[in-house]
Structures are given as structure tokens and as C-alpha cells.
Amino acid sequence: MKKYAMVIDMDRCVACHACEVACRSHYDVPVPYYRNWVHDLRPEGVYPDIKKVSYVGLCNHCDDAPCVKACPTGATYKREDGVVVVDKDLCIGCGLCMDACPYGARYINPNDNKVDKCDFCIDRVTEGLEPACVATCIASARIFGDLDDPKSKVYQFVANGAQQNVSDKVNVGPNIYYLDNHNEFPIIKAAFPPKVPKMPTPQKLWTNILRPLFYIAIGGTFIGQLAAFATQLFKGESDVKE
Amino acid sequence: MANKISRRSFLKIGGTVGTGAAVGLSASPSKVKAAVKRNPQNIERIPSVCEQCFWRCGIIATVEDGVLKYIEGNPLNPNNRGRICARGNAGVALLYETDRLKNPMIRDGERGSGKWKEVSWEQALDYTAEKLLAVTKKYGVEANALFSHASSGEHFNNLYNYLGSPNQAAPSFAQCRGSQEVGFELTFGENIGSPERVDLANAKVITLIGSHLGENVHTGQLLDFTEGIAKGAQVITVDPRYSTAASKSKWWLPIKPGTDTALLLAWTNEIIKQKGYDEKFVRDNTVGFSELTDHVKDFTPEWAEKITEIPANIIRETAKAMIDAKPAVVIHPGRHVAWYGNDVQRERAISILVAILGTWGQKGGYFLKSAFPYSYNALNIPDAPVPKRQRVDGAGYKYPFGSVEEGLTQELVKATISQKPYPIKSWLTVAQNVFNSIPNQADTKKAIDNLDFFGVVEVRPTEPTWYADVVLPEDIYLERYDSLFTVTGWHKPYVALRQPVVKRVYNTRPGWWIAKELGNRLGLSAFYPYNDFEDVLKYQLKGSGISYTKLQKDGVVTFPGKQYLNPGESYAFNTPDKKVHLYSKELKDLSFDPIPKYEPVNDPPKGYFRLLYGRMPVHTQGDTESNPWLNTLISEPHLWINETIARSMGLENGQEVNLENQDGMKTDKLKIMTTPGMRPDAVFFPHGFGGNDKGLLNFSRARVSDNILITKYNVDPISGSTGLRVNFVRLIKDGKILSPTVEVSFTGVNAKKNSGIRQEEQNRTFNIQPKKKASAIREGC
What we know:
The structure holds two protein chains of two kinds. By secondary structure, chain A is an alpha+beta fold. In chain A, 32% of the residues lie in helices and 19% in strands. Chain A contains eight helices and twelve strands. Chain B starts with 6 loop residues before the first helix and ends in a 30-residue tail after the last strand.
């Protein structure tokens, strides 16, 4: 069994943003949304000990993915190889998964009103290619592979201390790891801590799912009656046949 | 200021777009692409060459049913080995971008009125040729000047050569690499090329003095730089600012701006004193070592400490690192080196260090240029006429080492203002934004006012298009052929082909075609014995040993090169005596210093900061700011300023200020970024913004450019290249002039260790995924 994961090598990354644009291009992600990101922090510290870091992020394809639990239709699910994907045919664009995601990795694409997110370029990977962000990375700072394969680079980096963006409060088993040799990762964890997943409440289910459905039902009934009325107007009432 | 360009008037002009000819559709690239069927019938993968910057990476375009879906790096191209940067990826957005120039246009109102009429290509070309001929008739052919740049510039350089006008200039020399090329040529007899031949992947020590690799994304070098770091190279970054490269460095030396030559001389002093130089190389290959030794004997690290504010012990420590690592040491020559107007001498100082450390032709040092094993067929065309009058910019005579190929833009501007030594009455600009590349915008405007004709060949609206009499919209690089890219100075030498990957989107034409059509109308048809540029390429390659079909298919052909010298192998340097010139008799004979000296630069006046500028990784000069995929990453410049200084002026990170320079030139508001990683005596302005052509562009942008503030410049007497870092600015908030009330000492050095980072400033706001539309302004640069 495979378990896909990615390691970000912070020593190599120069925050050139190539990954971000490659992803936009491959998946027609409209501005200003994104499936992966590089958030640049300004250089901070006490002179002369300064650090300049960037947070490279994407969907963490969590082991215990809150988005999967939050999805009311089963559109978001975790594949056997660990990749969390969205079945667009089932997605109703309710956005509950977005509230559940600790990493802000999801958005609703205004082109189809469905949720979109990183899927590790699983179609490319199936074809034997690297994910688009990995393939374009000038610094070779993104390493993708199978965490269950001890020979893989990701396995070795993780074995050698690559870390996850987790906190005391939130640890849902993320599969993005950060390789940090210069004590820079704490800055990222402090600036971008994982958010406590907001799971759907009965109230949320009502406002996001049931109420829209209810309105659709009422609307549908009304339109049906209107149509029937119009038909009557134009065609006249037909004789009732016995 | 009587003659400054009023930004207000720019904006006013911008607000009154005439026919709206250049304002286009409102479709976004993602919509154009999304409109393609889910199951395309025809998927093509076409290799070509990028031109989102000058690095010319190999690309492969994936085209589905005629629509460009995405661009990837070409793994076969040694320049980028399958990788491309943010800009390269965003070529898709440029192709479908609505800001592009879409039709030929002729001005239909006062110059600068923004009134246009769309015309046919016939009309536009006839009109241009008519104007050029009128100027020729009245003032002579040399009165026609060309400002060119990039791949398409070459087609027009040829046109002006055929025409017989020597007055051609590109900013790539005088505002960029000129002094670097001249400095290295004087020392080694050859320049170090573009890409610079630095073996970063194998270096044990990398010294960056005037390079912010990482923020300038030169793909091939960045691949090597990160590889070198991963293999354990120690990096020494000399920069007044804590750059990305500095963050990867073992030593960050926040040098006082303008004092780099003092540091270089002190390193030379220390390396000679410690006998840390390559004795054999110096003995066998150089002239002037004893003069050099004598010259630098007083330039001790202690002497340099007082000037550079880098502690003497750190100068010694870094010198030792270079000594220990030699010959696997790269001292990067930098690329944009147009700083203070004495830049050839600074580059000479770098080249002398490169020489005495014996890194020439060595693994991990400077690698060699290879011999080109093929020969192209030359087109059967007449010889270009020899210009009857001397060029006006002084390249080659007033400035003895000024490039006669690339010219001196600012001198051509000056001559157009003075009309001396003879009148310059027409300009054609090709892929060069003369307002944002050449210093002192007011001069540029004044020169344009003197012209009988001003034509612009461009792909998108820029400030010059606004003043143009005729606009000739060019195909972008994804739609056209250009000359072959023949690169012998890279790890693996190669020839690469640019070919169209899609049908053109708008009513544009390739540069080669525009030049040829103008040539035909100017009586130069003998120089254009072809109808299709692809035929030229095929003809050039016929019998050369390179298959055109293979180039079409693979995009690139590589050939074996020789990067390193064999042990004990000697190298014939391309100087008259085949030696490396530590002491330059050539300079001495022209009354210049034969060995570089440190020349002090003025300190900022009280209350002012030195204006430094540089790149951001996602933008190329002013060419990409309107690209929606890049604009969303960095949409405005944030001025770097020391946080303690800023606080003393009552400023917090992210607040807006206006800048005013020493000549009273003011900018609109821009945001500041406070950081401890900036020297207190300077501010840093990310370059690449500030287009004033509001009316022509579809979405709002930052209207502030560093070049507005670069009204003053020096000229290097050796190369004729400009020194642009001689301007000072002060900060104004709500009409009040701000002045720092504290002094900040900046003499420490960051030698990498894991030390306490303050964590209190955690109330920052970041751009987390917007749920609905939101502005996408990122922090930092």
C-alpha cells in the first residue's frame, strides 16, 4: 500500500513562487484563489541574527482528515493511497469542508461553484509524472513520494527529522513535512498554526444544506404551479376524462 | 521643478483613453482555458524558448485543441533542466492577457493625448516608413535612432544596420551588465558571458557581492546555487539588505553601500599577505602581481573596517574561507552592476580576486566557454553600409570601452535633447521601456518632444506607447520565430529553437516580419530574400550538422563542451600577451587607474536614505506587473526600511508613505516593510512596478516606480555605463517630512547560528485563502 507525502526542504526553497503558478496553470485556478501557496514573511529577529522564511503549503492529505468528516455528501474522501480528493459530481459547494480544514487549503471555484484543492496531481502521478509543483521547482525544495517505502526520499527525510505543522491543540496527521536545519520552522508554526477544525453543527447543517434544499423545494413547487397555471392560460383547461 | 514629468499629467492622460482601442476583452486566462472541452481531441506538446525574462529557458507548451493549457520546463535544455520559474509558468496568462496591444494604431490627436485610431498593418507600416524616409531626407539616415532589447530587438538592429544608422542602444549594457563585461575583458581578455560561467553547483565557497540570486531568478544559476548549498557550500553574502541569499549564507556582511571596492581590496590584501593565492597560476598566467601586492599593502582589513563597517576579523575569516576552498570558489560578478559610475573598477577588483585564487577553468570556480562545433550558412545578402557619421552616444570613443553593439542609451537621450553633434529626429523603441529603463524620466520625455517621429514595437502597453505616433503590436514569444539561441558558455553548450506554439491570438505580427516589411518599404528588400523566418532558420542549418527536424521536435540540440582545464593545462587568454592583466596597461595608457582604487561615495544628507533597488522573484523589470498570475503574488512594491529607524519616525510595518528625492521628485504613496534586515542608512525599493499608463491597463496597479526617483546618475568614464545608486530619498507621511531620531549601529555580522528569535510580533495578518473574492496582497517581497 502506498502513502503519498511531500517534504519541503526549507534550506533549498528560495520562495520563487514557481510552484504556485505551475499549479494555477495546470488546474485553471482563478485569481485570487490557490491550491498551493508560498507565504513570504519579512526578515525578522534581532540584528544581526535574522531569519527570512516563507511558508510553503498545500493540502496536508491528513490521516485523520476533518474535511472528510465534515463533507455531508461524501464528495471529499480519502483514497487508499492517502490522497484526499473531491468528487466534483457529488460536491454541492456548501463549504463545510473549508471550515474544517486546519490549513486553509480549500476554496470554492467560482467557475463551477464546487470546492477545489490540491490532489497531489494524482492523475500525473498515476502516469508516472511528478506533481506539477515538484516538476517545476527550481530549487528542488519539494520532494514527493511514498512514505511507506523506506527507500523513498520522503521516507528518509521524515526518518531524519522532517516535521509536521501540528500543535498541542491540533494534530490530524498531516502528510506534508518540513525539513529545517536552521531552526526556522518554529517561526512558521507560530505564524501559521493549524486552525482547530470547525465541524458542522446542526445549525450549520441547517443554514448550509437543509435550508437551501428547503428553499429549492419550495421554489420548485412554486415554479411547478406557475408552469401549470401558464399552461392552463395558453391551452385552456382540458376536459377531465373519466 | 519646471521640467519634471508630472505624474498628475500622466494620470490625467491615462484617464482619457480615446477610442479605447487598446482596452480589450474582459475574459480572464483561466476562463479562456476552462472553455476548452474536457476531453480534447488533439493534444500537442511543442518545445520552444521562454522570454518572460532574458534567461531564455527551454519550455514545452501543452496545447489542447489549439488552446495553450500550460507551460513546463524542457528537461533537455541544459539552461534550466526541466524547471521554469513563476514568470515562465505565467506565460499562459500573458498570451491570453487582455492588456496586450491587439491592433496597429496611429495616433489621432496630440502626442500623449491617448487618442488612437486602429489601422491596418499596411497603413501602419506605410506610415512608419514614410516618416523614417522623411527624417532621412531632411537630416540624414543617422538621424533615425533605435532603442532595442530582447530577442526581437535583433531583427531591428539588423534593419538599422542595413539602413546605415549607427545610433542604436539597449539598456542591457549601460543600465545593466556593461561594466561587468568590460571589467572582466580588461583582466581576462574575455567576458564571462550571459549566463555567467560560474560553477555554483560545485563551489565550496560562494561569494555574492552585488547579486541577490534567489530574488533574481536566473533559473540555471539558481538550480546550481541551491545544489551547491545542498552539497554544503558556504555562502558569503555582501549586501546592505538581508536578502534571500543572505538567509542561505554562513556570513551576511551588511556592507555600507558604495564601499564594496574597499572590501575587495582588503580581501586581496589579506589573501596575498597570507600567501593564500594560487602561486602557480599567478606565476604562469598573470602580469602585474608585484604592482598589485604593492598597491594593496595598506588596504588592510582594519582600513576596510572603517570604510565598509564590516569588522576586520570577519574580513579575515571570510578571506580564509576563500583561501581554504580555492580553487572551488565562485565570486559572482553580479549582473546589474550599474551602481556608482566607477563600476568597471569594482568589477576589475572582483576579477583580480577571481584570478589570484586560481579559479579560472576550475571545478567549482569559473568554467570555460566551449568552441562551437557547427557553422551556420550565412544568408546571401549585401554587406550593410558603413555609417557615414560617427554614432552620437560616444561608445567606443568618448567612452573607450562603451559597447558599439549595445550602445549607451542615456547618451543617445542626451544627444536627442541637445541635437548634437547632429540632429536625432526619429526613435523606434522595440521591447524597451525607455521610461523605466533609462534614468531621469524627465530627460526621456524632453527628448521625445524633440522628435519628428516616435514609433513603438511592443507586446503590451508601456509608458512609451502612450507617446507613440504609431504602435506596432508584436506577437509574444509563444506566437513567433526568432533567431536560434546558440549558447556556448554553459555546462552543456546548446542550440535552442523558438517556434510558435499556438496561432496568434490578436492582430499582431512577429518582430522579424515587422522589420522585414519596414525594410521593404525603405528600399532594403535586397536584405530580405525570404518570406518566412522558418525558411531562414532551415537555410542556416542546412549542412551544418544540426537537424532542423530534431530541433523542432526536441527544442534543443546539445553538444559536448569543455568546462574545465586538465591538470597542468595552460590556457591562452585572449589578451595581446596571452596573460591575465592584474595590472592593466590598457587602462594606464588611457589615463585610468591600472589597478582599482577605492573611491568614496557621498553619504546621504541628514534625514535622507540611499535609494537601493533590486528584483523580486516573480517580476521581470516592468514587463510582468500586469500579468494577473504574477500580480496576484506581488502586486505592489513594499519599501524595505530598518525597523528601529522606522519606529523612531513613528512608522509601523505596512503603513503608507510618500518618497521625495534630493531633487524634489515625489512619488505617490507606497507601503513600507519594516525589518531588522536593512541597513539604517538605506532603503530598498523592489524594481518592476510603476507603469503610469493607467488608461491602457485593465486593473489597478502600484503606480510607484524606483525609476521616478532616479533623476541623478553618474557615468562610468571607462564603459559609459550609468551609476544609478546615487539618489537619496526621504519619507513623507501625510505631508509631514519624517526624520529618524535614533542612530542604529550596523557593524555586527550574522554568522549562521541558531539563536533567539523574537516571537512577540505574532499579531501579523496573512493572506489565508479567501472564501470569496478578496485582495491578494502578500506581505513582504
